[in-house]
Amino acid sequence: MSRIVPEGEEDTITPPDHFRIWPDDARQLLKSLPDGCLDRAYLMFPDPWPKARHAKRRFIHPENIRELARLLKPGAVWRVASDHPVYQDWVFEIMGAQDLFDAPPPAKGERPEDWSPTRYEAKAYREGRVPFYWTFTRRGA
C-alpha cells in the first residue's frame, strides 16, 4: 500500500480509482462479495487477541475460513503472516482442523521472496520476534 499511498499522506492523496480501502470490519465486506471472486488474499500480521477469552475475535476462525474459502477460486492462495506465538499456535490448530485449504508448514523467520515487507514485520524483527509465513491453497471445488 505504501507504494500507492506513501505513509503519512493517507489524508492528502487520492488513491487510484481501482484501489479501495475498507475502514470497517472486513467480515462485513467478505459477506457482500460473490462466490469465487478472489484469486488471492492476504492476512498480514493481524491483531493476535492473545487472551483466550478474545479468541473469537481472531480473524483465523472456522467461520471466517469458510467465508474466505467461498470467495477464493479453487487453487487460489491465502497468505498469512504472524509474529505472535499465541496467534501462530492458533493458526496451526485451526488450519490443521479444516479441510478447505491445503495447509503446509509455514516458512519460519524468513519472508518468502515474493512477499512484500510490512512495518509490522520490521517491528517484529526489531523486537526479537520470529514471524511465520503461511501459504494456504484453496482446495478444488
Brief descriptors of the model:
single chain; 141 residues; alpha+beta; Rossmann fold; 5-stranded mixed beta sheet; globular
Structure description:
Keywords: Methyltransferase, S-adenosyl-L-methionine, Transferase, tRNA processing. Its EC number is 2.1.1.33. This is tRNA (guanine(46)-N(7))-methyltransferase. It is an enzyme of class 2 (transferase). It catalyses: guanosine(46) in tRNA + S-adenosyl-L-methionine = N(7)-methylguanosine(46) in tRNA + S-adenosyl-L-homocysteine. The protein has 141 residues and is α+β, with helices and mostly antiparallel strands. The protein has a single domain, classed as Vaccinia Virus protein VP39 (Rossmann fold), CATH 3.40.50. Helices cover 26% and strands 21% of the residues. It has 4 helices and 5 strands; from the N terminus they run H-E-H-E-H-E-E-H-E. Strands 1, 2, 3, 4 and 5 form a 5-stranded mixed beta sheet that branches. Helix 2 (62-71) links the parallel strand 1 (38-44) and strand 2 (72-82). The chain is globular, with a radius of gyration of 16 Å. The N and C termini lie far apart (32 Å). The mean pLDDT is 89.
Number of strands: 5
Largest sheet: 5 strands, mixed
Helical content, roughly? 25-40%
- Please identify which CATH superfamily we are dealing with: Vaccinia Virus protein VP39
Tell me what the CATH architecture is.
Answer: 3-Layer(aba) Sandwich
* CATH-derived topology: Rossmann fold
Tally of individual domains: 1
What is the SS-derived class? alpha+beta
Radius of gyration, rounded?
16 Å
Detail the poorly predicted runs.
none
Beta-strand residue percentage: 15-25%
Order of helices and strands: HEHEHEEHE
EC number: 2.1.1.33
InterPro entries: SAM-dependent_MTases_sf, tRNA_(Gua-N-7)_MeTrfase_Trmb
Keywords: Methyltransferase, S-adenosyl-L-methionine, Transferase, tRNA processing
Catalytic activity: guanosine(46) in tRNA + S-adenosyl-L-methionine = N(7)-methylguanosine(46) in tRNA + S-adenosyl-L-homocysteine
